[in-house]
Design goal:
By secondary structure, this protein is of the alpha+beta class. The chain has 18 helices and 20 strands. The chain has a domain of about 210 residues: Roll (Dipeptide-binding Protein, domain 3), CATH 3.10.105.10. Helices cover about 25% and strands about 15% of the residues. A 5-stranded mixed β-sheet has the order 14-13-15-11-16, covered by helices on one side.
């Protein structure tokens, strides 16, 4: 993000990167210390009169959007970049899926049996065998080398086995529980697990678990890390990609829901705009159809564009925080991590940076999740702003005169400046070590070789259940364990909740984990903000979802009215 006040407030992204804001309901009874403080002046958002029930979507037209950075890679097994997955998921699909669209809750994580790629499935009584029955007659996109051939169970087997054997695949660690995969016929996929997994279906529904990959793609292109290899069975075809210029998609006529008229759009035209003020100007000029708008800009945008309507998200899907090198001094000492947490004035962040529209995030479980624990015990004191106590913790740890550390990041924002200023006040001098996105992902995600602290995106629109909030970020050896946590006591609890199928017993274990993490503070979470997505009047049936990286499933339901400018061409 640019180093401006707007940088930390603007919701950047592509068409559905604008869905970075979860619509999860915030906990009904949150402690006063976690409330936003109410400094923000309530903003009345322009809303649209609901359409009559008999109004049907009008097919055609091109949705115009923008993106701030090219995907750092094209192989879905190379990392967790939102820029990559928001591109890939317009083309690809997953085995099972969540419900999407205006008819469903934005935080509905029940598996959609009607519209999933697998039409039905059974789970054995012991929870160790999952049998999926795939849709018949599904065609790959009609592009060489796939040439519109039928999708079969061995394609899904290849995709899952590739993720299992690729250490950098986002759900590699979770999928290692699969002991073997069988395809008794071309429409049946059988997964045999080593042990039970309470979140197995949710993991398979994650946008990271792409199942339309095929050996022909590797044979044709050498590997999957090329835009030419982005061929799937999803709603859109990647038609054109010009680095640092544009990404263009067109409707996939072979899409398995085409008999329902989906997708409604003829295509999506995304132009790369790195500067937030330029993309906002494009939205004001009606060259961009849909955009996240910061609260600092909202009143002005409503004046220049009175016909827009806005959807106010609830808690942001993109949650940031600090990771620590817990495997070496100084941050192997929990007192240093606790001091960092107590140096952060969360209420000030919420009131000054987010105008009161945010919520404190304590610990590893999303604050809007039913698994979240409000009373985190005695160690909840480390979430309170107390610079004096933070300085004492440093002194007790052997740093009475403070210490100097570095912080890895890319694209500095006001968030980073706030961290640097806050930590300096308790005696921690931070030097920002800024690198470009590709190098950042390599150092943080692949090598985990940063020096002291890294500013990280804790979660995005693919982190949706306890296993992905807990094991993938805190478990020893997991690919998303940015802090290099290796804690036998914590691992035992993580593994216990992972296999516990009784939700009541599982909740008790997850509560214990949250209390434990309040003491250990392996990560320090930044507050979660509410966001606003605004659209011009011709955009219909856009609905965000917690699984916001499922950009294709969200975009396939969008349609444009007959007066949409892009029905005459993209014109950006």
């Amino acid at each position: 993000m640019p180093r401006t006040r707007k940088g930390v407030l603007v919701i950047v992204g592509l068409l559905v990167m604008l869905a970075l804001f979860l619509a999860c309901k915030a906990p009904e009874a949150v402690r006063t210390s976690q409330e936003g403080g109410g400094a923000g002046t309530p903003i009345v958002l322009p809303t649209r009169t609901p359409l009559p029930a008999d109004v049907k979507p009008i097919p055609g037209g091109v949705l115009r959007s923008y993106y701030p950075a090219d995907p750092p890679y094209w192989d879905p097994n190379m990392g967790v970049s939102n820029y990559a997955y928001e591109t890939l998921q317009r083309v690809h699909t997953t085995l099972v899926q969540f419900p999407f669209g205006p008819k469903f809750s934005k935080w509905d994580l029940d598996i959609d049996t009607a519209n999933s790629f697998a039409q039905s499935w059974e789970v054995s009584q012991d929870g160790l065998t999952y049998t999926f029955h795939l849709r018949q007659g599904v065609k790959w996109q009609n592009i060489p080398p796939m040439n519109g051939r039928e999708f079969v169970a061995t394609d899904a087997k290849f995709a899952l086995e590739t993720q299992i054997k690729t250490g950098s695949a986002p759900r590699h660690s979770q999928l290692e529980v699969i002991n073997s995969i069988e395809c008794p016929d071309k429409y049946t996929l059988v997964l045999h697990l080593k042990e039970r997994r309470a979140d197995m279906l949710q993991i398979l529904a994650s946008p990271y678990c792409i199942i339309d990959l095929a050996p022909e793609l590797v044979a044709a292109f050498g590997d999957l890390n090329s835009p030419k290899a982005v061929i799937g069975v999803g709603p859109f075809i990647l038609e054109d990609f010009v680095p640092s210029v544009k990404t263009v998609y067109k409707k996939n006529p072979n899409y398995y829901r085409s008999n329902e008229g989906l997708p409604y759009l003829d295509g999506i035209y995304n132009v790369m705009i790195t500067d937030a003020s330029t993309s906002l100007a494009g939205f004001r000029a009606e060259k961009i159809d849909i955009r996240g708008v910061s609260r600092i800009d909202l009143a002005s945008v409503k004046q220049t564009n009175p016909d827009i309507y806005c959807a106010e998200g609830e808690l942001g899907a993109s949650e940031f925080g600090l990771a620590f090198r817990t495997d070496k001094p100084p941050f192997s000492d929990a007192r240093l991590r606790q001091a960092v947490s107590m140096a952060l004035d969360r209420k000030s962040v919420i009131d000054t940076l987010y105008f009161g529209y945010a919520l404190e995030q304590w610990g590893p479980i999303h604050a809007a999740s039913p698994w979240y624990l409000k009373d985190q015990g005695e160690c909840a004191k480390y979430y309170q702003y107390n610079p004096e106590a933070a300085r004492k913790l440093l002194a007790d740890a052997g740093y009475p005169n403070g210490l100097s550390v570095s912080m890895l990041l890319y694209s500095p924002s006001e968030m980073d400046e706030f961290w640097v200023d806050s930590l300096s006040k308790v005696g921690i001098k931070v030097t920002m070590k800024t690198v470009e996105l590709g190098a950042y992902m390599n150092v943080l995600y692949v090598q985990k070789s940063y020096d002291d602290i890294a500013r990280v995106q804790m979660w995005g629109g693919a982190t949706l259940c306890p296993d992905t909030w807990l094991n993938s970020i805190y478990g020893t050896g997991y690919v998303n364990n940015y802090s290099r946590v290796s804690d036998p006591k914590l691992d035992a609890m993580l593994n216990a909740q992972m296999v516990e199928m009784d939700p009541v017993k599982r909740q008790e274990i997850i509560n214990d984990i949250q209390r434990y993490e309040a003491c250990e503070m392996h990560y320090v979470h930044w507050p979660m903000s509410w966001g606003v997505t605004c659209m011009h009047s011709w955009v219909r049936d856009y609905q965000t979802h917690a699984a916001s990286y499922h950009t294709g499933r969200i975009a396939e339901l969008i349609w444009l009215t007959e007066d949409a400018p892009s029905r005459k061409g993209p014109g950006i």
